[in-house]
């Protein structure tokens, strides 16, 4: 989605989260999905004859399992509806459409789906509708294109041969994609902008002077706001590290094995994450002194990616017992 | 049962917290709630929060927000991926156990970076409903139409609920929608957002946060002049599927209200004010009828969630607003309601009383 951005060229980024879910259906929901693939709609029947559509695995009243699968009609009645305009991103529909709870003949509960008519004026509670099907069906709720007024469908048969026994649907894919308009906090904006000038900024705590990098606008130990920015040198030591042998999906620029480390800048009281290179991986050690290797000046941007990696500086190590976090050690936590 | 009261609260709610992180939002609110009763974090025996990673777009986002509390030395802490009103319930249980006397509850939601009405689709059945991406307004509209066509209420009566909310919200700094002049005719003249619901029928989407301090017994009396005693609290849930329950009633809200009344010794219908957490005017009607709130009950004196609905905090804000009515002496008995899930699936009722 696009949102209007404020003036002054504030930093922003698209943040997209995608979950490629594959869901196991089990026998009851699987029967419903298998039915859709065969252009049939099925429900699950309770002992008293009550039929749940879509087929429910358990009786919501008692929690008892439901296992008897029964066919219902692919025609029914609209119990309630609304009109969706514009159509929602991610939905199967590209045009404005009705959305309704439709109770199919033979069912006791209604199911949600689209009603494909031209305008809101064509929608009414109580209207009779019939299912319309996708040509290519895989066993998914979107195999059903939606419902249209009864008698206006394509006239295709509403039953095909049952494939349930030979090849039941066992899982479905339901990818989820969510888009966010990510705007960093004021402290993070300043931090990222400073990178473009090859500067590294931290926040100094008003409580005891401890310096936090990246600056997050708060001293997390005390829940006190931090506003004072301090510029930090481009050198420090390794507080801890990890050698990674497995590739990260989407990061082909990171040949394995690689070393990621907590870099403790001189004058900072906590570490931040960086890559270590410029030496053999097995030479990396806690307390090793390192310095930043920056991108070429013409490639600098408002991003922490400006620092390509940290390389050994050749200075004597920080003793292991003095390496790492010091912000939580109390007073007098200046750097070694 | 131990006597437990709301002794202070802080609320901030706006249309969009564009440049503030969750931490920057919560630092002043948590401090305001603690400072109001002279407490520091070391005095707090248990801290419980409510929020959603789906809003932050980031896993375990609540862990970062603990930065706002001051969690060093380590604190006793918990989190629910729900509205903060359910975190308040957990804190109330912890206080009932008796090992602590003070609890901090907070929650927050910043839904503005995403499309909230669409994000909410992922809470629906992931097999047969969510892949259709029905948005939250459409789902609320399906319920509203059932209600109207059942004859329980008219569109004009729903508009009157919107008018009442906006009138009550005048003077509430945290309300997004307030108007002393708006009429039913004004509402009816506006376009449908999700037929039969108009914009004024749908809760105003907001970003914000809320912090509440709970204290037990004499400790509560020491901390403030008029504690808002939680005399009864209960939450109940209905079936998830939209097709398997009666959407024009909220059985779980009615049951929770009855159970809370059993503990409180007074009924939901006997309160002076009620703060309701509803996504639509239709839901306000369902709750009003379902919990037996009669004509004497002033509903949503703050404007309620219709005037500003911060996802994950709107329920906790209802408790805070109800407690403020008690603390100020404007009410002696109050009901605060919180909900979760589509179409009032889950409901919490809190009955509050002043001395």
Characteristics:
heterodimer, A: 336 residues, mainly beta, 2 domains, 5-stranded antiparallel β-sheet, 7% helix, 35% strand, disordered C terminus, B: 355 residues, alpha/beta, Peroxisomal Thiolase, Chain A, domain 1, two-stranded antiparallel ribbon, 34% helix, globular
What can you see in these coordinates?
The complex is a heterodimer of chains A (336) and B (355). Chain A is elongated and about 85 Å long. Chain A has helices spanning 26-37, 186-195; strands spanning 13-19, 22-24, 41-45, 51-52, 68-72, 75-84, 97-104, 111-115, 128-133, 144-149, 171-173, 176-182, 200-204, 211-212, 218-219, 224-225, 228-232, 235-244, 258-265, 272-276, 289-294, 307-312. Chain A has 2 domains: 21-174, no CATH class; 186-322, no CATH class. Chain A is mainly beta and 336 residues long. Chain A has 2 helices and 22 strands. Chain B folds into 3 domains: 4-114 and 205-223, Thiolase/Chalcone synthase (Peroxisomal Thiolase, Chain A, domain 1), CATH 3.40.47; 116-201, no CATH class; 229-353, 3-Layer(aba) Sandwich (Peroxisomal Thiolase, Chain A, domain 1). Chain B has 12 helices and 13 strands. In chain B, the strands form 2 sheets. In chain B, strands 1, 2, 3, 4, 7, 8, 9, 10, 11, 12 and 13 form an 11-stranded mixed β-sheet that branches. The interface between A and B is large, with 67 and 59 residues.
């Amino acid at each position: 989605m696009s949102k209007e951005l404020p003036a002054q060229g504030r930093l922003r980024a698209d943040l997209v989260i995608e979950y490629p879910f594959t869901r196991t259906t089990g026998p009851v929901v699987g029967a419903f999905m298998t039915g859709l693939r065969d252009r049939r709609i099925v429900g699950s029947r309770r002992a008293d004859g009550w039929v749940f559509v879509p087929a429910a695995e358990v009786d919501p009243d008692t929690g008892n399992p439901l296992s008897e699968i029964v066919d219902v009609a692919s025609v029914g009645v609209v119990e309630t509806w609304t009109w969706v305009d514009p159509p929602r991103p991610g939905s199967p529909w590209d045009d404005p459409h009705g959305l309704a709870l439709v109770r199919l003949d033979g069912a006791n509960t209604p199911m949600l789906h689209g009603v494909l008519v031209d305008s809101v004026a064509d929608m009414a509670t109580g209207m009779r509708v019939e299912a319309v099907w996708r040509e290519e069906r895989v066993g998914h709720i979107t195999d059903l294109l939606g419902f249209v007024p009864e008698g206006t469908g394509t006239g295709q048969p509403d039953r095909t041969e049952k494939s349930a026994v030979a090849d039941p649907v066992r899982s479905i894919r339901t990818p989820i994609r969510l888009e966010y308009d990510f705007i960093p906090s004021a402290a993070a904006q300043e931090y990222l902008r400073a990178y473009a000038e090859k500067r590294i900024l931290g926040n100094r705590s008003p409580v005891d002077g401890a310096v936090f990098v990246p600056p997050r606008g708060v001293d997390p130990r005390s829940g006190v706001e931090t506003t004072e920015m301090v510029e930090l040198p481009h050198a420090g030591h390794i507080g801890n590290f990890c050698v990674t042998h497995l590739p990260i999906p989407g990061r082909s620029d990171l040949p394995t094995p690689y070393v990621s480390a907590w870099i403790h800048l001189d004058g900072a009281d906590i570490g931040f994450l960086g890559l270590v290179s410029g030496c053999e991986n097995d030479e990396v050690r806690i307390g090793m002194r390192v310095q930043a290797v920056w991108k070429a000046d013409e490639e600098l941007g408002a991003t922490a990616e400006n620092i390509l990696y940290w390389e050994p500086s050749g200075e004597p190590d920080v003793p292991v017992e003095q390496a790492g976090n010091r912000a939580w050690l109390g007073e007098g936590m200046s750097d070694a | 049962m131990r006597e437990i009261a709301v002794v202070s609260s802080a609320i901030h709610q706006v249309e969009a917290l564009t440049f503030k992180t969750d931490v920057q939002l919560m630092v002043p609110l948590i401090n305001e709630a603690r400072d109001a009763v002279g407490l520091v974090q070391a005095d707090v025996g248990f801290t419980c929060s409510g929020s959603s990673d789906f809003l932050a777009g980031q896993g375990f986002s609540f862990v970062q927000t603990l930065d706002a509390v001051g969690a060093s030395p380590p604190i006793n802490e918990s989190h629910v991926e729900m509205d903060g009103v359910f975190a308040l319930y957990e804190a109330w249980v912890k206080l009932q156990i008796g090992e602590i006397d003070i609890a901090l509850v907070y929650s927050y939601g910043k839904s503005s970076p995403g499309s909230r009405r669409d994000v909410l689709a992922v809470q629906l059945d992931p097999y047969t409903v969510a892949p259709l991406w029905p948005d939250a307004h459409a789902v609320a509209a399906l319920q509203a139409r059932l209600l109207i066509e059942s004859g329980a209420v008219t569109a004009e009566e729903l508009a009157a609920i919107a008018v009442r909310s906006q009138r009550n919200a005048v003077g509430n700094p945290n309300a997004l929608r307030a108007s002393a002049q708006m009429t039913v005719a004004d509402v009816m003249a506006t376009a449908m957002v999700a037929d039969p619901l108009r914009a004024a029928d749908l809760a105003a989407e907001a970003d914000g946060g809320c912090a509440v301090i709970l204290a037990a017994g004499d400790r509560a009396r020491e901390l403030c002049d008029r504690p808002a005693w939680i005399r009864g609290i209960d939450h109940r849930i209905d079936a998830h599927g939209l097709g398997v329950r009666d959407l024009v009633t909220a059985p779980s809200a009615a049951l929770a209200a009855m159970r809370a009344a059993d503990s409180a010794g007074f009924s939901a219908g006997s309160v002076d004010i009620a703060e309701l957490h509803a996504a639509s005017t239709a839901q306000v009607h369902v709750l009003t009828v379902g919990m037996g709130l009669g004509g004497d009950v002033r509903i949503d004196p703050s404007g309620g969630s219709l005037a500003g609905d911060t996802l994950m905090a709107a329920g906790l804000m209802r408790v805070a607003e109800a407690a403020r009515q008690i603390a100020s002496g404007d009410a002696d008995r109050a009901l605060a309601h919180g909900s979760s899930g589509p179409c009032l699936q889950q409901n919490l009722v809190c009955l509050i009383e002043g001395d």
